[in-house]
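Lab notes, practical 5.
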Amino acid sequence: MNEFVSRGFWSSPLVDTLSYPPPFVGLLSMAGNQITGRLPNDIFAMTDLRKINIANNTFVGKIPDLIASWKDLEVFDAHMNDLSGAIPSYIGELHKLQEVNLAYNSLTGRVPLALKFLKDLRTFRVEHNEMTGTFTVEDPSRSDCCFS
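Output from the prediction step:
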């Protein structure tokens, strides 16, 4: 798996367009870099992404609709940002998702019911947001699902 990893040395907004987003990157980690602003749309051209970690930055705005382009996504970690709005319902169409961590943002709305049908989802964290609804976990092996 090709990887792009930044280890805390990036401190500015990302440009609106990346000069050449390589579609073959499988892991994108930009955690803890103090990056500000919105995720550039070009990041969603990385259609082979399986794991993305953008935690502990200051990303703002809604989770873009283009998240649906990450069909092979297994891990989405965006905790400790300033993301707002609702979690897009079509996140439930990402059938390979195993971990979602959106804790400590400013998300609102209801928990998408479609997440309930993701058979590989083991971790779903949205605590410390302003969300409503319930997320029932009927499979005891899916025990790390936090909602508050």
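Observations recorded by the TA: The longest strand covers residues 25-29. The chain has a mean pLDDT of 81.
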